[in-house]
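Bench notes, afternoon.
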Amino acid sequence: MKLRIINILTVLIFGTVIALTACSKDDGPIPKNIGIEDVPAMTMNTEPQKTNNLDTIRFGNPTAFAGKFKVAMVFPTAAKPTKVDIVVRKNGAATNVKLFKADVSTFPTSLTVTAAEIATLFGAPIALNDNYDFAPDIYANGKKYEAFPAVGLGSGAGVTGMNTIGFYEFVRITVKN
């Protein structure tokens, strides 16, 4: 019986010593050796026009489409990115991303796109039910934060419910009848 009590006490003391020596000052939600990078928050919004539905290309009359959208800082007084490149992906495929406008460095900036420009970018005519998503690749802190990377989440992916306050990660243009 004494041997069993000694064994139990030895295990408890040894376990306590291991548990107490495993702690360090870097324990916690964000260890000091892992930094958080400040990446400028960008937003994309369509700009209203009286004569055009900005997010729809009519398949029967694509030449009438001229979509206008704006890229801006969510927090205008925050540090700005070095530049952004506006890219567009077709039908949600991160492997089918084209450069629409390079080296945008003033914010807010308004851009206009036509159906002909979209068709030229992708080298194919627009088709019914195609979706084209426009978003910024952000250059800051000497790094590029892609809007639609081939692997993983993009520069703003995962933010949900923000459209209620006017924040949109990308502008989607759809081809409809």
